[in-house]
Design brief:
Chains A, B: Its cofactor is FAD. The structure is a homodimer. Chain A contains 21 helices and 11 strands. In chain A, strands 1, 2, 3, 5, 6 and 9 form a 6-stranded mixed beta sheet that branches. Chain A has a 3-stranded antiparallel beta sheet with strand order 4-8-7, with no helix packed on it. Chain A has a two-stranded antiparallel ribbon with strand order 10-11. In chain A, helix 8 (287-322) runs antiparallel to helix 9, helix 10 (383-411) packs across helix 13 and helix 15 (522-555) runs antiparallel to helix 16. The longest helix of chain A has 36 residues, at 287-322. By secondary structure, chain A is of the alpha+beta class. Chain A has helices spanning 20-26, 33-41, 44-58, 73-94, 102-109, 117-129, 132-143, 287-322, 341-376, 383-411, 413-417, 423-432, 440-459, 490-517, 522-555, 562-580, 582-586, 593-619, 625-628, 639-648, 658-664, and strands at residues 149-152, 168-172, 177-181, 189-190, 201-210, 213-223, 236-240, 253-257, 260-263, 272-274, 280-282. The two termini of chain A are 25 Å apart.
């Protein structure tokens, strides 16, 4: 039979020919693809560095993800530990430092499929919260992997509300030790990565008690496993929390402590200390802790949220020009599914969003870096704004991108549902980003609290941070657009977004005020407004994202057609947002029904325009086939051959199931081999 | 250590005490829970039958799902085959027939986790499409499992567009055989259940050729594996398509045929026949095939779509009264998370939707049964309406419920993300319902085509089916509501939904007409309207769902408080739909901004009201703990204990990972056991 020989090695240098339907899409790009890649990377030099890193990682078989979709949780974990140990060696060999430009690309090239990320958080928390002496003791050991650290904050019964943590650390003056305990089952530490099977040490957050008085939550370094044989230390019960929707490679763990004693020196004591006589001393600002959370939220957006959406778009869009189904015109050949308006409407707004969020991520990093410089100069003024931004954008971007990945998955029909498409694992992983590092609804409410405060201040003529001065602006009540082309003007749609954000914030502030004035208690009034506060916070983030996209496009060079195509993507992102949240804009008549029809018309027109460049726009993300790890999304578009070849490697095809002998054979008609 | 002893056997008769926070929710139900259960079951007698079936199934260890979350694809498959063989035996023992009232409950009690569902489709297709002689030959063999059948329609390159199938069946007069071939890789059969490892036979859909002329797609019975040793027949290549997002227990397969010869008698020939001399004869109506698809779509809605949402609501709502987090009021204890407005806004509309869809499912079954009776009387008039309804509701309900399950999952935070919560597998399974048996967008476009046709007919004064006579109605241009209480009037909101559906259908019909009149070709014009056509079809289905919910509530007895609580759920479903699709209602000013504020106020008020009955409302679904298989959702609310106990059973805790010896031990500091 000739069929199975159609393709060659699909993971290696591989297939020779590009599917002609996909190839033809690349002939007509309206812009220079490598130029756009360089813009996305932040310069051609960084593209070069990235590609070097990718080559180094992908050419090493230890880092292969070829069998990932067939592996059990145990196998994934073992591979991730192996990779973590190997990558350290590799980086040393290459002379790449943890702080160097290569580091971020190493993690990306591994697609995050590596152990000991919490070991890094362990190190970071000691660096930030530990005294010089503590840093000097622990960091070198950790850097060399002479111990494996974890970070035990979340408990079975408490996630976001840290004050509620139940683990206790009681100071025993007589022995100069802290005695750590898990008083109830809900106090068990639950979820910390690297803790279920790997960690020898962890930073435990516990309520500090001295002489029976509680001083609140503090961090303590606790050894949990022997360094000699990896057995659990006395009084420690720990293990793996079992299967999850993704992250099979990570040993998220549980931990119970029963009268575990640690020396006084193991409380991280840069900002607070318990002296030998039990005196509690607090020094310096606690606000810097705040900043650590802010930094984590901002740092995860690119790799854990935006990149997965970019990958999903790449897979779904390439597949949608290879897949042909049904006919657009009777008598013609079957059409590429990307030529159907409904398919464009599913995928192209996600593509535009991936670009929009890439640019807002740059903006957040600038804001963060500026804030960091101020903090180094002991100026903490920007912290509330940074906190509000990191919270709101983490929530808004992760929610949007998660839904975007799901849309891409569904848009690939049955084949998208196969793990071999790569889309299910992108989805199940990005979904977690809506939950970890602050549940999204709670984060949006923190942003809303900041916005309400700023709105009140701005209304009273007091100064507010630059990003929210717009709240003070009085705006015209009507959108001036006269025909559908007017909605391709960034001023028109940016104003509309601004107007909507102000309206939602001001109307919710008014409702809150009314409730309080009518005698409802403040906390209860707040709770009664939270559904609308979440809407308001989202509208603010959406507005800033559109505004930033517009400003980014203005700054782009127009050579190579890049400014032009980015302008269209920006228009699409903005109009799709108005189209799909029409009620927000129609509510007070700022946009009329007739204008909404213009928005719809312009939005649908843009789909047809961007469709032409869809493949070059995902090619510009510059993912390798190994990085995508998708039978549907490879550069050559040999979709069906890859699905077939990869399926054959599945364990279900390597074992004759005992089910036949045990259950079927006794039943099946077996007098004749053939009926 | 005392902690691990807190609970007893959690899968068996189990825990003795109900969590007090959950228990207190059950004391204040405004209605009689068993009475509502009986309403949902369609009578107390059916509740009794259901419970007998559930008891029988759940007390048999073969059907246990206890280790499901820890099993590999191979293990799941083996268990599913074992269950399929055992359930047949069990039903014989109990005297339950396939057509009896118990049958549907058996499948539900197994949570669909059983093999050979496609074997049933194999049998159904022979019953419907086969001649009496074929039925007499094959059905007895299949009923006894003397062969295992599958149904091979979908190909690697073709799903929804059946005319595009590439497999060929060429009639060879000299031998009186059909020669089946897979001419290209994309022609490979791909996805059929039970085919990858189990089936001995399958119904293959292939293009029929006689004397070089193509007669279109026809069904053929093909043996693919030996009945003696289960080896593949000559010319057959088949296997498993590998890992998917769910359905690990099903051996979805691939199949290639190379000159496979089958006797002339193996073409299913009730409606078409090839005579010995090659003469092709068509007889009877093809429309009945149509009806089979309709019947499958309607039959899957209850078990595969609505039940998963009911389960997800049960899990998330029970968990949300056990989970306490943060404080609503300073100084008080931490609040149940269901007391936060944002949590109510996530979960309670899903609960209302589960009820709304349960009732629309009843409506669809009545419609279907009426249509079936007509068809038996050779009256095919209702087929277009039935097709439009089954397509549109399959799409709308599966989309809504999939998103509802995802909301429930996310609303449980980190613990929802654990497989042990039961929510991830509910989500990954229900997601497939958006794709299989017709991709949702394509189905909605079929409904839209029917609606446009009916709208045009109604506008011209021609008769249309009763369900769409509303399209002819001229409606007042404004919603008459004056305050928020008016929006609790079913007339007010039903009219609003009707108005919105008519507006979307008529405006899209007008756009289509305009495009065609301006010279755009008909197919191209259709494509340019598809985004809006999909909206229109959804609006129609949403309207019918609301209307049917209202009518159902009217017919309910008001004893035991049931009508009252159902009325409130109906209000919530309707107002949530207006609140979250505000643009649709504001667009032409039918509802004004001020009225939308009333909708919002009433909607938020309802959340607080229904919150009080939330737990009794999910208790009424009457799922057993074994059926839910969720550490978060059990009746007793012992959430944390179960998570802990179940996690310990994970394979990750049963094996000392080789990763330690291989990769960690060489690195770890091991001169001292303790640092």
């Amino acid at each position: 039979m000739a069929l199975p020989d159609v393709t060659k090695d699909t993971q290696g240098s591989g297939l020779t020919s590009v599917n002609p339907d996909l190839a033809s899409e690349r002939l007509t790009a309206s812009f220079c693809v490598p130029r756009l890649t360089a813009v996305l990377d932040g310069g051609a030099e960084r593209t070069r560095v990235r590609r070097v890193v990718v080559d180094v990682i992908e050419s090493d078989p230890v880092f292969s993800r070829e069998n990932q979709y067939f592996q059990s949780q145990n196998e994934r974990y073992e591979a991730a530990v192996r990779k973590a140990v190997h990558v350290r060696k590799k980086m040393q060999e290459m002379g790449w430092s943890e702080d160097g430009p290569e580091s971020v690309y190493v993690y990306r090239a591994l697609s995050g499929d590596v152990a000991f990320l919490l070991h890094r958080v362990f190190m970071r928390s000691i660096s930030v919260l530990g005294s010089d002496k503590q840093v000097a003791k622990w960091i070198p050991l950790a850097s060399e992997y002479q111990l494996i650290g974890s970070y035990a904050q979340t408990e079975l019964g408490h996630g976001t509300y840290l004050q509620g943590l139940e683990t206790t650390a009681v100071f025993d003056i007589s022995t100069q030790e802290f005695i750590l305990n898990t008083p109830t089952i809900s106090a068990m530490k639950w979820w910390p990565g690297d803790m279920g099977r790997s960690a020898t040490h962890t930073v435990v957050f516990a309520q500090l008690y001295i002489h029976g008085k509680c001083y609140g939550v503090h961090p303590f370094i606790v050894q949990i496993r022997s360094l000699q044989d990896h057995s659990l230390c006395p009084g420690v019960i720990a293990g793996d929390i079992g299967p999850k929707m993704n992250f099979e490679h990570i040993d998220n763990g549980y931990l119970m402590l029963k009268n575990v004693r640690i020396p006084r020196e193991n409380m991280l004591n840069k900002f607070c200390e318990v002296q030998p006589d039990g005196t509690y001393i607090r020094r310096g600002s606690q606000k810097i802790n705040y900043f650590t959370m802010t930094s984590v939220r901002i740092s995860l957006i690119a790799d854990e949220v935006i990149l997965p959406l970019m990958k999903a778009c790449t897979i779904a869009i390439r597949y949608s020009v290879v897949r042909r189904q049904s006919k657009l015109k009777p008598g013609e050949e079957e059409a590429k599914i990307l030529d159907y308006q409904t398919q464009q409407e599913k995928l192209l707004p996600q593509l535009a969003a991936a670009y929009a969020f890439h640019f807002i991520n740059n903006y957040l990093h600038e804001l963060f870096n500026r804030g960091y410089r101020e903090i180094q100069g002991r100026n903490f003024d920007s912290l509330p704004e940074l906190h509000a931004f990191s919270s709101g954008f983490k929530a808004m971007v992760s929610q949007y991108c998660t839904s975007g990945v799901e849309i891409c998955l569904r848009a690939c029909g049955g084949h998208g549902y196969s793990l071999l498409s790569g889309l299910p694992s992108l989805y199940t992983k990005i979904l977690a980003s809506c939950i970890y590092e602050g549940e999204n609804t709670i984060l949006l409410l923190q942003t809303a609290r900041f916005l309400i405060k700023c709105f009140t201040a701005a209304s009273a003529g007091q100064p507010v941070p630059p990003s929210v001065t717009y709240l003070a602006a009085t705006k015209p009540g009507k959108c001036p657009a006269k025909d559908k082309l007017d909605f391709l003007s960034p001023d028109i749609y940016t104003e509309a977004y601004q107007h909507a954000a102000i309206r939602l914030i001001s109307s919710t502030a008014a409702k809150l005020q009314d409730l309080i004035q009518s005698g409802v208690e403040r906390h209860e009034a707040w709770n009664q407004c939270t559904v609308q506060l979440v809407q308001a916070a989202k509208a603010h983030c959406h507005y800033i994202t559109v505004k930033n996209f517009v400003e980014t496009v203005e700054k782009l060079e127009n050579t190579a057609g890049i400014q032009n195509i980015m302008k269209r993507l920006c228009d699409l992102f903005a109009l799709h947002g108005i189209f799909s949240n029409a009620g927000v804009f129609l509510h007070d008549g700022y946009i009329t029904g007739a204008q909404m029809d213009m928005v719809t018309a312009s939005f649908l027109d843009l789909l047809g325009i961007i469709r032409k460049d869809a493949v070059p726009l995902v090619d510009a993300f510059d993912f390798t086939d190994k990085n995508l790890n998708s039978a549907l999304g490879s550069y050559d578009g040999q979709v069906y051959q890859r699905l077939y070849e990869w399926a054959q490697k599945a364990p279900t095809n390597k074992q004759i199931s005992p089910a036949y002998e045990k259950y079927l054979k006794p039943l099946l008609h077996n007098k004749l081999s053939k009926l």
